[in-house]
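Hey L., structure's done. Input below.
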Amino acid sequence: MKNLKSILKIHEGGKIETTLKKPLNNKAVLSQVYTPYVAEVSKLIAKNKAYKRKYTIAGNTVAIITDGTAVLGLGDIGPEGALPVMEGKAALFKKFSGLNAFPICLDTKKPEEIIMIVKAIAPVFAGINLEDISAPRCFEIEDALQNIGIPVMHDDQHGTAVVILAGLINAVKIVGKKMESLVVVVAGAGAAGTAITKRLSPMVSDVIVLDSKGIISKDRTDLSEAKKKYLTISNKKSLSGGLAEALRGADVFVGVSAPNIATREMIESMNEKAIVFALSNPTPEIMPDEAIKGGAQVVATGRSDFANQINNALAFPGIFKGAIDVGALKITQEMKVAAAEAIAKFVKKPTAKKIVPSIFERGLAQAVAKAVGKASKK
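Output:
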């Protein structure tokens, strides 16, 4: 771990700020920026709200909304604890897509209050990025905000699913398998696991999902209503048991759950040329070297110090930019698939050590935005 003093130093005073886009250095400019002549712009927008996109920050600013209940690997640390993370995300928006973004950390855990607040502040923004809100509340909140006139996306769900699909598109090329023949095991039935399952289930042979108690199967009597929905799109062979039983004969393991839950022996029981995405942070479900010893041919983690980092930052800047640039009202499934394909295509010659690009590769967000915008127009 880096020295705490150096970490605090980079956060001191915050990581983002507002700045002037037009010079404000004399009375003539002041009279146009503010009173009296700003009234002319206000009257114009009052007559036609569409003008706010052209003449205010509402055309290129994203609200990053959280209640601090599911922050990184820290869990429910509250809105104040979540603020440094949301600031960081705002910095990523600006760096990689050019969009302004502002963190809004809400001191409420009630879905109905969060929904009401987001609807009330929506006129100021071009998009809403829901972030680090715990499941299953996050599903209700996102669903309720899909018709507010601007794109709304819960990034923990869909950003993760998009980047995993991108990595999988390239991984199957390396191992010589077809997407539609894959049996995928997803460990973790929270926000990310749900989105991954929904995204992959129409594209692969089967998805087997596990929560902390084992495989989500028909013989379970302890399933919540949210988890019962998995039964319609997963586990076609009605497997039961734990991770060891789920991985036997599987082609892909996607972990979005907890550290050190998989063993080398479990990976050995998978089909040849297995693909392992162990994304728990900071400690993966299985360390890459152990997965490789178990026979995995392609291994990805959520960490930057290993090959193949599955990072939401590969997706969300371009997805929001693409949606906002074309004035999309929603971020559709087609737009998410287009984003995944664009990320995958950005790696010209995929290898076992590189199935996704680095977030610092120039032009990535713009390529994703272009693909998303094109999908939106369709």
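The chain has two domains: 17-155, 156-378. The mean pLDDT is 95.

-- N.
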